[in-house]
Amino acid sequence: MSRAALLQQEMGLGPAWQARAGWFEQHPAQLLRQAPADGDAEEPAALAAEIAPEPQPAAVAPTAAPQQSAPAAPPPVETAPAPIEQPVPTPEPLRAELRTELAPIDWPQLQSRVAGCQDCRLCETRTQTVFGRGNPQARWMLIGEAPGENEDRQGLPFVGRAGQLLDNMLQAAGLDREQDVYIANVLKCRPPGNRNPAPDEIAACNGYLLQQIRHIQPTLIVALGRFAAQTLLETEDSIGRLRGKVHRYQGVPLVVSYHPAYLLRNQPDKAKAWQDLLLAHKVFRQAGN
Questions:
Q1: Residues 235-255: pLDDT tens digits?
Q2: Alpha-helical regions (H) of 27-133
Q3: Is the pLDDT of residue 80 over 90?
Q4: Do 219 and 111 form a contact (C-beta atoms < 8 A)?
Q5: Domain segments of the chain: what residues?
């Protein structure tokens, strides 16, 4: 036994590995070097095929380039992609084309048309229409969203607690509700349950509101509430992004503020509404009034 085998035996590593007799002589690499016997010429070749390493992709990659000389297959015919269905735009109530299509009518005739309007389904659920209130020759015009339950019953805009709050705010700003301002709504009929107005309902009232603005010719417009502001300015921006700025509607300065009904539920925002009134006063004075 060799010295290395004795050391491994003392360390508990077992006997050293030893090749079996004849193992190297039977190794495939050794057999390939031997001359094939008669009738056995194909056996070493088959054995070599089994142990030959498989060709790697990198080895054949350089030979792929010369094959580009073969005629290329015609490119597939591209078909036009199916058009993406776009959402149907919400009808805008005060579009430019409407401004030229509406023939002016006098004030009493406009009131009569609104009272008998049946252009949308709201005529089936209303008690009466709500045309407006105030001085038709006022320089200030306040526009809200739609009549509520009290307005539908009395036929006047901004009555009840929200109306009282608006009166107090106007009085604090030095304005008289009956003489200095005219108040109207985007819709002239109450939506059931005070829900948001539908696009077709807005479209049905487009002409009425536009005719009112044409008759009054206000120096300043104040949009009360998110819905009125978004409708007049044709935008989806929040009231927080719209207020505090001076907008334009058909060349008339427009200031956005909160709806009085909203202020009843959110008392801290009354201070912001007061700032909006101060801004409106500033714009009104700058207009030379």
A1: 999 999 999 999 999 889 999
A2: 28-33, 42-51, 57-60, 96-101, 107-115
A3: no
A4: no
A5: 96-286
